[in-house]
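Re: the 903-residue chain
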Amino acid sequence: MNKFWLAFFIILLLAVILTVGLTVTFLYKGKKDDKDAKHHEIIWTFHLDNEESNLKGTLEDIINVDILKTMDYEVGGNKATPRSLHGELGDLTVTGWMHVFKYPLRVTKVVVGKAEIKVGKVVPISGFAVIDKEGNADFVTLWHDDAFHHYSTSGEHLATGAFPFAKGDESKHPDMLDLPKEVSDADLAHPKLPEDVPLPHEDEEVPKVVPEDKDVPIEHFHPEEVTTDKTALKAGALVVDLDLASQSQVGAPLTYKDGEDEITITRATFNVNFEKWTFTLTNPRPVVPYIKYEGTMVDVGCSDIMEVAVFVGKYNLPLLANFKERVKFRSFAHNGNNEWQSVRATVVDVETLDGIYCFLKEMVIFDFSKQSGKYTVGGFEVHVSEMVGSEPFERFKSFKHTIHKRTATTLEPASAKVHKYKFFKVNFNGLNPDDEVTSATAFFWDGDLTKALMLRLLVGDTFKNYVGYKDFKLEPKASALQGRLERLNYQVNRALTINLAKTAPYDFKGGLLGTREEHVAIKVEDDTPLKKFKKFVHTHAGSRNMEHFKILGFVGEEYLKFEQKDVSLVETYFLKGHMEKPLLFSLKGHFHTHHYFLEDGKFVKKELIFGDLAYTLKHLAYHTFTYLTLNLKKFSSYHFSGESVFPKHRHSHVVVRRNDESEEFVRTTHTLEKVHGELTDFFVLALEGADIDLKDQVVTSVDAYFVKGHFDEPIAVNFKGAAQRLYVATTKGYEQKESILLSNSKKLLRRAAFDKLKLVYLQLHRMSNYYDEHLDGLEVTVEKRTDDLEIDGFNKFVHTFPETTDVRFLIAESYFDPKVDPMYNLNKAVVITGRKDFPVLVSLIDIEGNSFYFKYVGDNEWTKVKPMEMNRFLLEINQKLAEEEVPAESRPPKMLMTGLYPY
């Protein structure tokens, strides 16, 4: 007894330990899944060689970089600033972002998952670029081994030199754009720091454009007294007259003289919103430039200049002067009042000029690609925060950009006119430039945070709502915003609500708009992939070649969680007669397919069972509506799918019982027993072993009838339930008959055996023709040929019948199977009867004249006999008949039938 309690205690303890372990595992997995779902990232691991760097010891040798980052970050002691990328290559626009590092990277190799990028020549590079496609990272461009190399985000090499999409066209080459590459020795001496353009009011720790020499303090140049006497200027002076240049026109060069120098001013448009003024000497020489603007002239403090260019904004406002020395450029940013600050601007881009313009005009730029943190524009600092739960628009996220002005001691809320509203390089149109804006809130569909669809501006005490994509329009009615946003989201993002129950085209709201708009097309495929199923394919009606779309949700299935990926089509599979919900639906994209099963009235994401769609549908039909596949060829219990249990399955569901009591036929009974011995009603999904088009009905059991020796296909099938349905084999296939005919089953089945198997029942006792061609499907002719016999006392009858490979012997109701080899095609039987007209000898003859002999041995039994023994056998029979030795039961009974079949 003590041993029993000890064993019980040990088992209980193990159960508790197992339960706790599984609970911890599931909790950890759930938290891990939640964490993974919130932080989507692609990590590239850079291995660096910092031996030759003077920063050895402050920088890590291995850094993990999330290439999807678009905000400033620090990694391994280095600071990086993602900068937007926008370039035109002919008719092609390249967009993305660049990771520009404060300290150049000396890359030895890069590891991405299992992929490894090997670098042969280690040189300092300023960073790398990520090229996007519709807002998503498409591939990475990395400089190494004296060339640009292009890799997929998983590290697979795509191309070297021209971009992968260029297909060898060298005009579409990274050299045409300013992408991060090898850093020169000069740049290493004065590193370019990836920050915004520095302006006098800023206290930024690391400005984007810094003084050329950190050892020399920034000098501010004040205008000197204007004079035309060049003797007061430095030797080699050249007056860069911006006042005079402002009087020229784009495309019409203007020439003026400064002492003995002749200068030509050429104005050209620079990136739409700016101009580049170029000052060219007719007789080139090194000069000391003096900038003249608004009547004042200033020496910016450089000499030996060979080329002069000034970048100008609206209203001829000078922004940046660019002077080329013999080996490098010197740049000066305008701080107002003709004061200029020496800056390092290796590349003059729109961001640089926008920053200076905003500072001079006290304006701001809203960049809605920034969705957290803060950024500096001109004299303002813009703070970004996500408005979680505060906005009424379902499935939309909003990010509020609030303007602040930094004073000497504090940071205060402010308002300003807006120079640009943009997302990376994409500028927005349609907004009032004269509004003094305090904050701007951008609304995005949460499935694509790269396309702002609504802007809400706080102007004074008034909110203004603008709806659009790139081109915005003011929407004065707050009640119209939800509808406009939803429709715009469909037009821009191809975002659709899928109605899984729909079998005809519907609108982008899942058919809830009540209009005849067809945004989702539906193609119907009947009996796919199995009979009794219907497949419906949902595609974007406005697309070509099944262009992808995005899914907002599913009508009536709000609980359903799904991964937001591009989808080309949605496939739904319905069981006929149950069209309320599909048993299964699939989301298919260019590179992925996800399946959802209907379980307990809700959809659950799962993989196809055994990777087989047809089997999965059988599984769902059985467990949801108790549909199963009957396999009439089975003579032992089997799986609901119609397959054998082993080795694929664990359990049998359909029980088969076999009845061999009849000497002619075998009956098998198929029942569903979820609990052993208890019958469960079911529906027939498919029928294997008999080509019967069965109507949908509740079935309790199924009887299948076979001719012994012919088990390939039944000759009759009886479906039992509330209403019985009997199907009998005929020459035209299975036909439904009245089930009452089974009361005379032997006659019914014999007729079916002839129609199905061409099996002929020979009535050996007949002395005249029998069967009717019209009623029975055949006729057997009988010819008396007694004169051919050499032995007296016997009669000979020749039975001629349609060609067949199988026959049975009948004498009244007695039955015998002679089991002739089916390779012979029989068409005649010679029957010898004695003086009592009882058959005693039968010869079966095939179409080639071969004969098979059978003699009667009593008790309805026949046995084969050799030809040479026939006469002796007949003499013995004759003697026995004469002596009345033939038993009474062997004598032919009275014949009351004129035909074999009752119909």
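Residues 22-39, 189-228, 886-903 have pLDDT under 50 and may be disordered.
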